[in-house]
C-alpha cells in the first residue's frame, strides 16, 4: 500500500511532464546556417514562441524576403 502512495503521484507527475513538454525544432545549426541569433525568429523572453520572422522561416525555410526583425 505504501508503494502505491509513492507510485501514483510519481506516475501522474511523469505523465504531466510528457504531455505538457513540447519538442524543440529549432537548432543552433539553423542559427549558424543563417548567421543570426535565436532572437531573430523567437520572441525574447519566451523562446518557444515565434515572431513574424520565425513564422516566415518555418513556412519558407529561408530568411530571404522575411519581414524585418524588430
Description:
With 70 residues, this protein is mainly α. It has three helices and two strands. Helices cover 50% and strands 10% of the residues. The radius of gyration is 19 Å and the shape is rod-shaped.
What would you say about this model in short?
It contains 3 helices and 2 strands. With 70 residues, the chain is mostly helical.
Largest sheet: 2 strands, antiparallel
Percent range of helical residues:
40-55%
Following the backbone from N to C, one meets helices and strands in this order, namely: HHEEH
Number of strands: 2
Strand order of the largest sheet: 1-2
The geometry reads as: rod-shaped
Counting copies of identical and different chains, the oligomeric state is single chain
The radius of gyration computed from the alpha-carbon positions, rounded to a whole number of angstroms, is 19 Å
Output the number of helix runs. 3
Mean pLDDT score: 81
Class of secondary structure makeup: mainly alpha
Beta content: 5-15%
User: In angstroms, what separates the terminal alpha carbons?
Assistant: 57 Å
**Low-confidence parts:** none
